[in-house]
Write a structure and sequence with these properties.
The chain is mostly beta strands. The chain has a domain of 80 residues. The protein is built from no helices and 46 strands. It has a ten-stranded parallel beta sheet with strand order 1-5-9-13-16-19-23-27-31-35, with no helix packed on it. Strands 2-6-10-14-17-20-24-28-32-36 form a ten-stranded parallel beta sheet, with no helix packed on it. It is elongated, with a radius of gyration of 22 Å. The protein starts with a strand and ends with a strand.
């Protein structure tokens, strides 16, 4: 059965204010596809303001879920033990125990979706997406511009196997429970190739490792994150003995202390083999006072050896093709080294591939700054890795590097 190019509005129910679908116990014989549909202004008294599903096979594609409410579970989409695919959909202004999507058991993929301005009450759980005992992949999603009490994403419990890959989490903030992404439990979930950018948390934790968390956190880019409490780790915060495998990440331009563990749960965090924004490593007042990278405080973090150049965070080919997403939210200009006024230099980019993204270099005459001479167009990012160092052609002229997409960003 399919619901295609429909609008569902104003529905009220105990479960599934917009759509309710249920299959036989542990059978999954019921199949439903929701395609190019809008679900808005619906309410569930219990779970699933927009869609509620259990023991079924469900596909949601190119669908808008907006202004949905739930008095208990997820406001946008709530599933129990289903096989699901959710792709290229928007979850906006949804409010419930989980604002956007709640996955309880089951398996499948969540791909190329956008989450914006979702929220949860003081006794809720998270704003955008919660995966509990779920097995599958969450990739290519955009979690952005949500300012609420709780974190954006929660990955947890001890069963299931979640891969959280190639997502962008940016411009989010918390005011009660801290963390942009909470990973919870001894489960070895994989968190890789994501961009965490300009997130502000009340007590640190662009990644918040909770309850003996053992997630693999690698090949991510952390840029411009901050904590209202400057002693807490703006990039990684550990609570209740959370000890993720934290390696081969880009950590550059974050504010205050970057990595820490709560003193009431003492633990040594292993943050070795990461790039801290400079070849000299992170700044630590006692252990590395000459470091010019991001800052570490205290004695609960191992950080030596560090990477002396940014890691290659090329996405594995298995996650292509990339879903559609706005260009501006997919990339970040990391650094130019040694600096853009050398005859030869390297430009460091982190971001998702997109055929619409181009990189250009121009040389400017020092005395005639309005005249520009194009040098050469480098490989477009649709064929370039997720993170790549580009080397400019040698020249004796003073020059300025600008990477231009939509919008452009300057690194000079």
């Amino acid at each position: 059965m399919a619901i295609d190019h429909c609008r569902i509005t104003g529905g009220v129910a105990d479960n599934g204010g917009g759509i309710f679908v249920s299959g036989g116990w542990w059978e999954w014989e019921t199949n439903l596809a929701v395609l190019s549909t809008t679900i808005d202004s619906c309410l569930s008294q219990l779970q699933g303001g927009g869609i509620y599903a259990d023991f079924c096979t469900l596909a949601v594609s190119k669908t808008i879920l907006h202004d949905l409410l739930s008095n208990g579970g997820a406001a946008g989409f709530h599933e129990n033990d289903c096989y699901i695919t959710i792709d290229s959909s928007e979850f906006t202004s949804c409010h419930g125990g989980v604002g956007g999507i709640a996955l309880y058991g089951g398996w499948g993929t969540v791909t190329g979706n956008s989450f914006h301005e979702n929220s949860t009450p003081w006794n809720g759980f998270c704003n955008d997406l919660s995966a509990n005992d779920f097995t599958g992949e969450i990739r290519g999603c955009w979690f952005h511009d949500t300012h609420a009490l709780w974190p954006s994403v929660h990955l947890g419990r001890i069963y299931g196997a979640v891969t959280f890959i190639g997502n962008v989490l940016e411009h989010n903030s918390t005011s009660d429970i801290t963390g942009t992404l909470i990973v919870n439990g001894d489960n070895d979930y994989t968190i890789s190739h994501n961009i965490f950018r300009d997130n502000r948390n009340v007590g640190g934790g662009a990644v918040y490792a909770f309850a003996y968390a053992t997630a693999i956190v690698e090949l991510n880019s952390f840029v411009g994150n901050s904590s209202d409490d400057p002693t807490r780790g703006s990039v990684l915060e550990s609570m209740n003995h959370g000890a993720p495998h934290f390696r081969d990440n880009i950590i550059a331009g974050n504010i205050g202390n970057c990595v820490s563990a709560r003193p009431e749960y003492p633990i040594i965090l292993d943050a070795r083999n990461n790039w801290w924004g400079h070849a000299s490593g992170p700044y630590h007042a006692e252990l590395n006072p000459l470091g010019q990278g991001d800052t570490l405080v205290g004695d609960s973090v191992l950080f030596e050896p560090w990477l002396t150049s940014p890691p290659d965070t090329t996405q594995p080919s298995a996650i292509h093709p990339e879903p559609e997403r706005p260009v501006a939210g997919t990339w970040d200009l990391q650094s130019v080294f040694p600096n853009p006024f050398n005859n030869s230099f390297t430009l460091s980019l982190a971001g998702l591939r997109d055929a619409r993204l181009r990189l250009r270099c121009s040389i400017f005459w020092a005395a005639e700054s309005q005249r520009s001479i194009p040098v050469r167009r480098w490989a477009d990012c649709s064929r370039s890795p997720y993170h790549r160092n580009f080397r400019a052609a040698s020249t004796s002229l003073p020059h300025t590097m600008t990477s231009s997409a939509s919008p452009s960003k300057s690194c000079c």
